[in-house]
């Protein structure tokens, strides 16, 4: 089993061409600004100081690479959608992601984070469709589920089906970085991505 506690920050890169060496398998972490990517990475790796967290949306603007046991990289992508950087931020995100997916890499899976408190938006659907069209293994990771009651949690699969227009092949993972909910399942999912 992977020891996620060994995760260490390696580099922030404005483009995939500046990714660290040696090349290792990668797990991409992506989602809307303020969805909780940095908090989730910290909880996943049991290290509060691994990824910098901010209450301001759009803080992460680079591809942040974290080495886990020298076996693979967790790649934290910039958030998309609203940010203090304005409209140009979404365009830069699109360019960065097209650059990331447009070159040979060792991407094994995508952790696609969605805030469980909100219905997916058109931006969410666009990126979801992009990943599906490129046949990349993906899991939907619903963040901040500790803020929901039981009936709200129960509605998540149906809401996702409405938003994305299909029955998901795999159930979304319900997580809370604050409470540590779902971290073991998420680690197991990453392990599964890396084995396939």
Throw out a few tags for this protein.
196 residues, alpha/beta, Rossmann fold, seven-stranded mixed β-sheet, 6 helices, 31% helix
What is this structure, in a nutshell?
This protein is α/β, with parallel strands linked by helices and 196 residues long. The protein is built from six helices and seven strands. The longest helix is centred in the middle third of the chain and has 14 residues, at 88-101.
Rg for CA atoms? 16 Å
Coarse morphology: globular
Give the CATH topology: Rossmann fold
DSSP summary, beta strand count: 7
Total number of distinct structural domains: 1
Contiguous runs where pLDDT drops below 50 for at least 5 residues: 55-59, 82-88
Mean pLDDT across the residues is 86
Percent of residues in beta strands? 15-25%
Residue share in helix: 25-40%
Placed side by side, the strands forming the largest sheet appear as: 1-3-4-2-5-6-7
- Put simply, the count of helices is 6
Kindly name the structural category.
Answer: alpha/beta
How far apart are the first and last residues' alpha carbons, in Å?
Answer: 15 Å
User: If classified by CATH, what would the architecture be?
Assistant: 3-Layer(aba) Sandwich
Q: CATH first level: which class? A: Alpha Beta
Name the CATH superfamily classification: P-loop containing nucleotide triphosphate hydrolases
Along the chain, the helix and strand elements come as EEHEEHEHEHHEH
| Biggest sheet details | 7 strands, mixed
Descriptive overview:
This protein has 196 residues and is an alpha/beta fold. It has one domain (4-195): P-loop containing nucleotide triphosphate hydrolases (Rossmann fold, 3-Layer(aba) Sandwich). It is built from six helices and seven strands; from the N terminus they run E-E-H-E-E-H-E-H-E-H-H-E-H. It starts with 7 loop residues before the first strand and ends with a helix.
């Amino acid at each position: 089993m992977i020891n996620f506690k060994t995760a260490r920050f390696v580099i922030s890169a404005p483009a995939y061409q500046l990714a660290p060496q040696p090349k290792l398998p990668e797990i991409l972490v992506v989602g809307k600004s303020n969805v909780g990517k940095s908090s989730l990475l910290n909880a996943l790796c049991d290290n509060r100081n691994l990824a910098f967290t901010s209450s301001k949306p759009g803080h992460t603007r680079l591809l942040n690479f974290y080495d886990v046991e020298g076996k693979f990289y967790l790649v934290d992508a910039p958030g998309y959608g609203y940010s203090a950087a304005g409209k140009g931020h979404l365009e830069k995100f699109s360019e960065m992601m097209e650059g990331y997916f447009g070159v040979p890499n060792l991407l094994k899976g995508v952790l696609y984070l969605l805030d469980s408190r909100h219905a997916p938006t058109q931006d969410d659907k666009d990126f979801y469709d992009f990943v599906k069209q490129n046949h990349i293994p993906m899991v939907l990771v619903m963040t901040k589920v500790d803020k929901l009651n039981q009936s709200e949690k129960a509605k998540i699969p149906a809401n996702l089906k409405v938003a994305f227009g299909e029955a998901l092949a795999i159930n979304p993972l319900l997580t809370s970085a604050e409470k540590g909910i779902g971290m073991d399942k998420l680690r197991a999912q990453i392990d599964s991505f890396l084995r396939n």
